[in-house]
Amino acid sequence: MSRDMALPFGAAVALVVVLLDRALGLGILSALLTLLQLVMTPVGWVVALATPAAAALGAWKWLVYLLLVIAGGYGFRAAGQAMTGNAPFYRDMTLAVAVGYVFAAVVAIAVAYTYSISFSTAGGMPDSYFFFRLAIHGLAAAVVAAILFRQLGMWIGTPGSRKLFRQMPGTAAFGIFIILCYAIAAIFAAWIAPYGQEEVLAKANIIPLVSAEMGGDPGFPLGTDQIGRDIYSRLIYGAQNTVGIAFVTTILAFFLGVTGGFLAAVLQGWTDQVLSRLVDVLMAIPALIFSLLLITAAASLFKGSSLTVAMIVIIAVIDSTRVFRLARAVGMNIVVMDYIEAAKLRGERMSYLIFREVLPNAYAPLLAEFGLRFCFVFLTIAALSFLGLGIQPPLADWGTMVKDLGQFVNYAAFLPQYAMLPLLPAGAIALLTVAVNFVVDWMLHRSSGLKE
Amino acid sequence: MTDRDVLLEVRGLKLEGRSDETWTPIVNGVDLTLHKGEVLGLIGESGAGKSTVGLASMGFCRDGVRIAGGSVNFDGIDLVNASAATKRSLLGKRIAYVAQSAAASFNPAHKLIDQHTEAPVQHGVKSRAESEKDAIELYRKLRLPNPEEIGFRYPHQVSGGQLQRAMTAMAMSCRPDLIIFDEPTTALDVTTQIEVLASIRDIVDQFDTAAIYITHDLAVVAQMADRIKVLLKGDEVEEADTRTMLSAPKEDYTKSLWAVRSFQRPQKPAVQTGATSVIAVKNVTAAYGKTPVLFDVSFDIHEGRTVAVVGESGSGKSTTARCITGLLPPREGHIEFEGTALPLDYRKRSKDQLRQAQMIYQMADTALNPRKTIGELIGRPVEFYLGLRGREKRKRVEELLEQIELEPSQYINRLPSELSGGQKQRIGIARALAAEPRFIICDEVTSALDQLVAEGILKLLAKLQDELRLSYMFITHDLATVRAISDEVVVMKDGRVVEQGQKDDMFTPPHHPYTDLLLASVPEMDPDWLTNLLAQRGADNIGDAAVDKMT
């Protein structure tokens, strides 16, 4: 499509969306507007400080802000060009990129401003900036720790590992650092946690992170749940249970999927047909529903820890279908290589072909998939636990914890600290997922040979 | 030439490439002057920086390459410091580029003519309708079959040579002042190449377009260029008129390039009748699924001899090799090794039978597992067939590396990616030798290599043959290689053997008409060769068009 067609076409699409939205009552537009308003509100504060009149613009103010940001981008680029004597960086900058810079700056200023006023809450009132402040502090601490971690990696270790750390982007260092923290928490849970995961202490519903006169207890930094178990200890044990089980499940899923996928790729013909159709059948049923069904069935046969083993096998089998697809596709590209033909003509056995010739060349995509698959498995387990079918109480598990503590969210208006409790295990899940993805991105980038 | 206006002037061009966190120089100050309507040939081995220089003269750098110094001046415009907008307005309109692989450069999802008209419409040179009309005119000028209709096909529906010409037409769509041809015929068969060369030369002439023609094939550049510049490892070696350059090169390096094509082994005496052959292909007929590809192919390969199998792509050369190795069991006929029939399927052959016939591949990149070190690659057959382990294995690997003229201590722990193309091909040879075979199939082993490097490989193969009494089946489409190394020649076409015999007989007339055409299509160093050939045969009696007439 030529460029001059883009505008009418875009307008037509927008019109159709608006009409559909009106006719069907989907609420897409209002949701979009709300979202925009959410984003623009901090911008609004900044603008409102400069021009009190802008604050009076009411519902249309976001549009004005948007135009202001675009104008800002234009001005920023023009200023850059004038000041640097038309340096290539500013000369070849598109307007969209310039607007992006200005927008990022506006958001940064808004965040800084919000942070600066967040301390001035009147005593006795609920601290509405509590979460905001916590997120900023947590993020800052993690970033600083990741930077230190990377510096450490650059100083100690073999020349190879030092080089690795030097070339590593900040996000990867952050991800590795977080994963390391989780691993340490999971492995040494029994030593780190002050109490046992199943231990019921006589103090229920203690509010976290506040002084004794407001209902806190320094012995329980994150408070206790409804039946008096220490939440901090349960969070740490949760790392062991949830992450550990997810890890085992992913390994099993990969073993099944990779072996099957490579077999299908190398042998082709009937083996490929049978395995692929089997996988198709398994994939045809929605994964979560299917695992719910199978685990419910398994629950009537197994109890306790053997039910957990059954769950691991069920999730591994279901997830191995996705791994199979990838391994088969990657394998297909590798088996057409001449070195595979050379190995076949040498008379090598199937296991040598799969594990010594094909596998080493598939590490990059498989590792990337491993990271993602681990996150999915981990979320599936958390979801199953949330539904009461995953890891069984009294074992601590983040999914179960989100479910058990969920009702505290209702206290957000007058006891923000208390309402934070379900966010802790949820945040733990989110943080690990983000960290794993950072590392996977980096690995993909490295192995794809796209350096710089 | 000098009285014409200067179109492109490159002065002291320095380019750097990024590797391992540092910028290393890859081109150290190349000067280049191109007048309007002039064709400059840029030649050199791979890694000489010719493609990088070609791209830089459009003001463009690949990822990980930067211009570190010098100037590129195109018709008064400084391309090094030009803004992105200025370059956008020039590229495709006044400067065009023709890449080596047209198949990889066309977008497979769009019809040829849609891709052709994109640039003129974007640049506002022509309307869509005008541009389509012009495309058909250009297709006609480039002698594409069915010019009215061919543009409405998708890239996969036309052959490689036609695609390369369609790409040249596309480069011409805005009538640029300068076209950069980056090895446009390297991936083509000789009979296809000659057609593409003739049409490129013709159209560049007609529109008086200036061109930079990048290639490593001297005979090709001799036909195309007015002047030739030789590059070596990022440095300029010399530059002169085509005729001066060919008749009286000044520098030693240039002379060595010129001399390569003369390597030739003497013809060995004919084998006595009745001697047992190492490999005998007996009346082999084979098919892929229902498509027949080989018809009653028979030939013998004797001890210490090289049989070259010649033909274009699709003639069944490689399929014959697949039948011999057992990857494609023939429908009829059989393969004999030293007088006894081999099982047709490789899976049914014994370890020893597999060991006796080894293979060396065209693309060393795909033939060597990139995740294994040289020691592992060569060591595996040593361990697998001969049962050597530990120190004995290492000793044997070192011997093999010495045989292929690579220093063992330096190479044994490297990965294939840390070697040059020629070195990789040597590793392929060593891996075949490691099995201690009697017979080796060489499938286009020198096609992907520069001429100097290819000559080294051919000499090595010849030396090994004499030392170890090896028999080679040498698959190639390059007749210069055939002349250099073979004892006997088998010419194949459409799955049949059209002619076979001793090398010397094959290169002296009378020939089978197909052999004649193949021989006539090989470019010669004489700059008038193509002109004379066209005058002698006419534009419709060369290349694929002539092949089509024959069938």
From TrEMBL, chain B:
Xref: SMART domains: AAA
UniProt-recorded name of the protein: ABC transporter
Alphabetized SUPFAM superfamilies for the sequence: P-loop containing nucleoside triphosphate hydrolases
Keyword terms: ATP-binding, Cell inner membrane, Cell membrane, Membrane, Nucleotide-binding, Translocase, Transport
Entry-linked Pfam families: ABC_tran, oligo_HPY
One function term, GO molecular function aspect: ATP hydrolysis activity
Annotated localization: Cell inner membrane
Domain ABC transporter residues, every copy: 10-258, 279-519
GO biological process terms on file: peptide transport
Topology class, membrane: Peripheral membrane protein
GO cellular component, one term: plasma membrane
Domain of life of the source: Bacteria
InterPro entries: AAA+_ATPase (IPR003593), ABC_Ni/Peptide_Import (IPR050388), ABC_transporter-like_ATP-bd (IPR003439), ABC_transporter-like_CS (IPR017871), Oligopep_ABC_C (IPR013563), P-loop_NTPase (IPR027417)
Family: Belongs to the ABC transporter superfamily.
